[in-house]
Design goal:
237 residues; alpha/beta; Rossmann fold; seven-stranded mixed beta sheet; 7 helices; 35% helix
């Protein structure tokens, strides 16, 4: 599949079942690439610039052991801007998989950008985050139940895309753009369409450990909501 459409590019060699639907399906963790799995360097396209974030390999193993599909969803507008090619994107992605010791269950990226210099890729694509298109497409093609899934990202665009797609929980990590995003949220500089992140973690390893804890002990948000419901019930007695 090329990037010359409104559909994201999916790596069909990475595995995963191409089943329609999404409800009642598999649970997944959606992952931004830059700033979450590897350090943000600005339009990463050279293998020599690839630096994996400490603990990312352990984090992904933890999530796989919990039964989650690992699905990368990433904006790659640098392709539309003529800064690198799809071939270079895939070369970096394959090296990232090698260093992390995993094969992603799905890889979706949007090569479009409204300010692109490559004419056929110059558009405001509905697949480009913060739009939810890539997540929705992955849900359909990989049979993912969004109500059992997570998003881990370092940018408010990741969180908004997850919220709009109906992903159950989202985590903002403080690597990459994360600290700046948190500052802007606290200072009220960004408009949180649909709400902010459900949780905040130091990095992807802390995020994975937290997801593991939720699997074991329950979700703090649901527990708190249950406690509030019990308080209201007792108040009516």
């Amino acid at each position: 599949m090329t990037g010359n459409s409104d559909k994201p590019v999916i790596d069909k060699e990475a595995g995963g079942e191409m089943n329609a639907g999404g409800r009642g399906g598999k649970k997944a963790v959606f992952l931004d690439r830059d700033g979450v799995l590897c350090h943000e360097v600005g339009h990463l396209h050279r293998i020599e610039d690839l630096k994996v974030i400490d603990g990312a390999d352990e984090a992904l193993k933890t999530l796989k052991n919990l039964g989650y599909l690992l699905v990368v969803v990433t904006n790659q507008g640098g392709i539309a801007k003529g800064l690198y090619t799809e071939k270079e994107f895939w070369a970096v992605l394959r090296e990232l998989e090698r260093r992390l010791g995993v094969t992603f269950d799905g890889v979706y990226f949007c090569p479009h950008h409204p300010d692109g210099v490559v004419e056929e890729l110059r558009k405001d694509c509905p697949m480009r985050k913060p739009s939810p298109g890539m997540i929705q497409k992955a849900s359909e093609e990989l049979n993912i139940d969004l109500k059992r899934s997570w998003m881990i990202g370092d940018h408010i665009k990741d969180i908004e895309a997850a919220r709009r797609a109906g992903v159950w929980r989202s985590i903002l990590v403080l690597t990459g753009y994360g600290k700046e995003m948190l500052r802007r949220i606290v200072d009220g500089e960004v408009e949180l369409n649909g709400g902010g992140p459900h949780y905040i973690a130091q990095d992807i390893l802390f995020a994975a450990r937290f997801i593991s804890l939720v699997e074991e002990k329950g979700d703090p948000i649901e527990i708190a909501e249950g406690d509030r419901g019990e308080v209201r019930r007792r108040a009516r007695m």
